[in-house]
């Protein structure tokens, strides 16, 4: 092979036409369209801001030094939470719109083929792959079936829950009769009282954090161990296959 014993010129320049001609060509499929990719990264940023600021709303930092009126720390923290909350909620609405007008991969996040035996067989295959029980997983063009389940329950449904409970609490701040109170105020008596909504909203954050930890681990792991590209697919939109 020319690449194993390159000529002196090849070694010096890095060019090797012989190796290029005999190498395999890469198969690539366009999977995630630009709006999906843009949404993914904006959404990831919004959730990071929501988790950090939400954590501090629940466990406020100790008293700041100096005059109280010199500091507006909790005000800034809550402002960042609410600004990110609007980006997160409007982003999800836009993403739902794209599920209708985008390609079929844009719809995977919002549905689960619960009644398909073929789907559950693939879930089992992925579980075996993660448990080191089979030597190779299958090749997936869209989300792998296990990721799809996590994304549906731990991202999509949980995000709706965070939006509904978040805007219910926000309505309390805006006041009775405000738009948030009128649209989401019913959530508070449904859950008991305001403190219950705080607690469930807070617990929801830990659910999302667990999802993100698994998600980022699996994305990087599958990129290295799996049979197709993963992280770069959410950047370029193209899925490439290693074999
Ligand atoms: C707060 C952080 C994050 C959240 C909430 C999140 C959420 C999601 C969601 C909901 C999807 C499904 C996208 C869709 O179908 O429209 C997805 C896909 C994806 N995410 Fe994230 N993500 C986060 C961070 C990251 C990071 C840091 C990485 C990179 C290491 C990453 C890599 C990916 C990849 C590669 C996919 C596509 C999976 C595939 O190829 O099937 N995500 N993410
Ligand atoms: C990823 C999504 C979100 C996360 C992780 C998150 C996290 C949190 C956490 C941990 C708290 C503190 C709860 C407590 O212990 O009392 C909180 C409070 C709050 N969140 Fe969120 N939240 C999210 C989305 C939203 C959304 C969409 C809204 C809508 C505006 C929102 C509005 C609020 C409000 C109004 C409070 C109470 C603020 C206060 O009492 O000063 N959150 N959030």
Q: What is the number of strand segments?
A: 2
CATH architecture of the largest domain: Up-down Bundle
Q: Fraction of residues in helices?
A: 55-70%
Low-confidence stretches: none
Largest sheet: 2 strands, antiparallel
User: CATH homologous superfamily of the largest domain?
Assistant: Transmembrane di-heme cytochromes, Chain C
Sequence of strands across the biggest β-sheet: 1-2
The name CATH uses for the topology of the largest domain is Fumarate Reductase Cytochrome B subunit
Structure annotation, total helices: 10
CATH class of the largest domain: Mainly Alpha
Number of domains: 2
What is the helix/strand order? HHEHHHHHHHHE
Structural class: mainly alpha
Q: What's the shape?
A: elongated
| Ligand list | protoporphyrin IX containing FE
- Measure the end-to-end span: 20 Å
Query: Radius of gyration, rounded?
Result: 24 Å
- Strand proportion, as a percent range, falls in under 5%
Q: Overall mean pLDDT score?
A: 94
Outline of this structure?
By secondary structure, the chain is mainly α.
Textual characterization of the structure:
The protein has 2 domains: 27 residues, no CATH class; 210 residues, Fumarate Reductase Cytochrome B subunit, CATH 1.20.950.20. Helix 3 packs antiparallel against helix 4 and helix 4 packs across helix 6. The mean pLDDT is 94. Helices cover 65% and strands 2% of the residues. The radius of gyration is 24 Å and the shape is elongated. The longest helix has 32 residues. With 243 residues, it is mainly α. The structure holds protoporphyrin IX containing FE (2 copies). One protoporphyrin IX containing FE binds next to helix 3, helix 4, helix 6 and helix 9.
């Amino acid at each position: 092979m020319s690449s194993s014993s390159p000529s002196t010129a090849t070694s010096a320049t890095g060019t090797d036409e012989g190796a290029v001609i005999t190498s395999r060509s890469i198969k690539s499929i366009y999977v995630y369209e630009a709006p999906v990719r843009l949404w993914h990264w904006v959404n990831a940023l919004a959730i990071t801001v929501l988790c950090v600021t939400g954590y501090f709303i629940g466990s406020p930092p100790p008293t700041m030094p100096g005059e109280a009126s010199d500091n507006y720390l909790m005000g800034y923290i809550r402002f960042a939470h609410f600004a990110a909350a609007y980006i997160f909620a409007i982003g999800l609405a836009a993403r739902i719109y794209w599920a209708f007008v985008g390609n079929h991969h844009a719809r995977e996040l919002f549905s689960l083929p619960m009644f398909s035996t073929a789907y559950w067989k693939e879930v089992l295959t992925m579980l075996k792959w993660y448990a080191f029980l089979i030597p190779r997983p299958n090749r997936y063009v869209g989300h792998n079936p296990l990721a799809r389940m996590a994304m549906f329950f731990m991202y999509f449904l949980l995000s709706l829950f965070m939006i509904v409970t978040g805007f219910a609490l926000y309505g309390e701040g805006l006041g009775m009769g405000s738009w948030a109170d009128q649209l989401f105020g019913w959530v508070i008596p449904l859950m008991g009282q305001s403190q219950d909504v705080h607690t469930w909203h807070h617990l929801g954050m830990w659910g999302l954090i667990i999802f993100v930890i698994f998600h980022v681990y699996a994305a990087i792991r599958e990129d290295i161990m799996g049979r197709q590209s993963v992280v770069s697919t959410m950047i370029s939109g193209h899925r490439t296959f290693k074999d």
